[in-house]
Amino acid sequence: MQIRVLCILLLLTACSQTAPIHNTQAPATPPANESAVGGVTPRFEPPSRIGNKDYQVFGQDYKVWNGIEHYVEEGTASWYGPGFHGLYTSNGELYDQESISAAHKNLPLPSYLKVTNLDNGQAIVVRVNDRGPFHGDRILDLSHGAASRLGIVKPGTARVRLELVKVPRPANADEIIARHEARTIQLMATNSASKAEAAASDLRKEYGDAVRIVSANTLFRLQVGPLDKASAEAALRRLRSSGYQQAFFIN
Longest Cα pair distance anywhere in the chain, in angstroms? Predict the structure, then answer.
């Protein structure tokens, strides 16, 4: 298993001190048939809010293959685990080392890959939610859970075949995307229920039912949302200019 360093500004959790290999184009090949293997079940997901822009690591530029339809590649895969468990992945999720996931330098986040260990023939489908590996010529970093299923933990690396699993776009895709892009604004957190309710009462004149108070123990959080992306961005500007300078998006 390779040694890596955390790249905080990019939310990248799969890095090394070795100069990375830069792939500029994705191979064009038919999508994988995942019906005969285990692992995660692919499902339609909108692109993650973060982690899908071209980026740079150790002075090397990397391009994200947004909109990719087909991809097959063979090369070396490694795995990463305990040192990163509970830290953020490149798309903002918390890394669970026992999940069936992986890190890839170029694929959109999230993506699904059929991964076949060419040394023993074992194959599973993994969900790509992280960036890396930036070590030599390795093409994929697997979670400990995925590496265990493929028989890669003990040797540390293996020759693998990667095949993109294309997930069909469902009829309600636009609705799913809209829900994913909806944003919620937090205006204040206070231990005074009356203070939160007084502020909420004024805000409901403009934002109606989008205003809510979320309470936990003795803390009361005043929020507005969820609102569609454009409305949320406009609301945040208005709220900051009207006295809620510390207002921020919580999702």
Answer: 66
Q: How far apart are CA 170 and CA 167, in angstroms?
A: 9
Q: Which residues pair with 78 in a beta bridge?
A: 141
CA angle 240, 10, 8 (to 5 degrees): 90
Phi-psi domain of 9 (left: phi exceeds 0; alpha: psi -120 through 50; beta: other): alpha
In the CATH scheme, what is the code of domain 38-164? 2.40.40.10
Per-residue tokens: 143 = 């979670």
The pTM assigned to this predicted structure is: 0.69
Domain ranges of the chain: 38-164, 182-249
- Nearest alpha-carbon partner for 140 in 21, 48, 221, 246: 21
Nearest CA among 143, 124, 140 for reference residue 132: 140
Pairing of strands 38-39, 101-103: unpaired
| Predicted confidence (pLDDT) per residue in 174-203, tens digit | 888 777 777 889 999 999 999 999 999 999
**Each residue's pLDDT tens digit, 10-36:** 344 343 333 333 343 444 444 555 555
What is the Cα–Cα distance from 107 to 96, expressed in whole angstroms? Answer: 20
Query: Where would I find the H helices in the chain?
Result: 144-150, 173-181, 193-207, 229-241
Residues in the chain: 251
* Fold for the domain defined by 182-249: Alpha-Beta Plaits (3.30.70)
Measured CA angle at 39 (ends 11, 170), to 5 deg: 80
Closest CA to 213 of 202, 11, 146: 202
Give 105: exposed, middle or buried? Use CB within 10 Å, 0-12, 13-18, 19+: buried
